[in-house]
Design goal:
It comes from Methylobacterium dankookense. With 288 residues, this protein is mostly beta strands. It has three helices and 17 strands. A hairpin with a 4-residue loop joins β14 and β15. The termini are close together.
């Protein structure tokens, strides 16, 4: 597989979102609701794509749908599009169970991923096409598929019932996309209040490190560059009760800075003009 989902997620995406519902301290015993957001994807300050994120929650059950794609010159030179969905539940221990699917195209070629997750363990994984065999590709073991979340669920950060605090940034998220495992390490948190923009209010500003674990090419230049990158940040804002989602993501690259910024924040449904567009996944060059 030559493309990967970013959302921060991060290469192809670590991407995205949330609502002006007030501080996360208003968590309910059985939270429910629906939230949508629209993002601009910017490279060197120029718009190159957009993304739509929708999240619904009913108690422990939740669903995430991400659609994004490249446009303009970026879309002309690099074909990256598709859909990604996750439907499942997060138990009281934080373990995720559910079904994750990706249908996308990268460089003109279709990519399909289907994966079941049971209590944080990936099973029934299908990846088409499978990653190209390489001598330096790190094997994925059964342990690498355990204690993980999918690339969409990693965007929804549980905040608990307390107020926003810098310490909420201090966490390690183990993400598995069906072909590779990587950990996102969040740290160096600070609390910032935004006076204007798509969202107004308190946000967490977190530094992010990408740590490859398995499935990647150990000697790949993109892997080494991403692993050494100390200039990645995510801003998390309160969305549905007790849940933080990315308001913006910034990733420095060797060619310039990639930014994903919320243009529209909140509401249960996408505007008609955006809802009618094809759902597509953010798919950027893989860090493998």
């Amino acid at each position: 597989m030559q493309g990967r989902l970013i959302p921060a997620g991060l290469a192809g995406a670590a991407l995205l979102a949330l609502a002006a519902l007030g501080p996360a301290g208003r968590a309910a015993a059985e939270p429910s609701g629906r939230f949508t957001a629209t993002y601009d994807i910017l490279f060197l300050g120029l718009p190159v794509g957009e993304a739509n994120l929708a999240m619904s929650q009913d108690g422990e059950r939740y669903a995430l749908d991400l659609g994004a794609g490249l446009r303009g010159l970026a879309g002309f030179f690099l074909d990256g599009s598709g859909t990604a969905t996750m439907s499942g539940r997060r138990g009281r221990t934080g373990a995720v169970s559910g079904a994750f699917r990706v249908e996308s195209r990268y460089a003109g070629k279709p990519i399909r991923v289907a994966m079941q997750i049971a209590e944080g363990r990936a099973r029934d994984v299908t990846v088409e096409p499978e990653p190209t065999p390489r001598p330096d590709r790190v094997p994925v073991t059964a342990q690498d598929r355990t204690g993980i979340v999918d690339p969409l669920s990693m965007l929804a950060v549980p905040a608990g019932s307390g107020p926003l605090a810098p310490g909420l940034c201090d966490r390690r998220i183990a993400a598995f996309d069906g072909a590779s495992r990587a950990d996102l390490v969040l740290s160096r948190g600070s609390l910032v209040t935004l006076p204007d923009g798509a969202y107004r209010g308190p946000v967490l500003d977190c530094r992010v490190r990408w740590v490859p674990i398995a499935g990647h090419r150990a000697n790949g230049p993109n892997v080494r560059r991403m692993a050494a990158n100390d200039d990645m940040q995510v801003r998390l804002a309160p969305a549905l009760d007790g849940i933080l989602l990315p308001l913006s993501i910034s990733v420095a690259t060797g060619w310039g800075t990639l930014r994903i910024e919320a243009r529209r924040w909140g509401g249960p449904d996408l505007p008609a003009a955006e809802a009618g567009r094809p759902s597509v996944k953010v798919s950027l060059p893989a860090a493998r």
